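Action item from last meeting closed. Structure (41 res):
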């Protein structure tokens, strides 16, 4: 159980460190899909 808790905590730390990178990647993906959708209209 403690192994699971430590793994969960390390995933939380990784997400906290890379949150800005994840937000950037998500924003870029949404922008590309939106541009493709608008171009197909």
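Sequence:
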């Amino acid at each position: 159980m403690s192994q699971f808790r430590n793994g969960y905590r390390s995933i939380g730390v990784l997400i906290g460190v890379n949150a800005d990178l994840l937000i950037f990647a998500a924003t870029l993906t949404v922008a590309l899909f939106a541009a493709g959708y608008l171009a197909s209209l």
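Note appended to the action item: The two ends are 53 Å apart (CA to CA).
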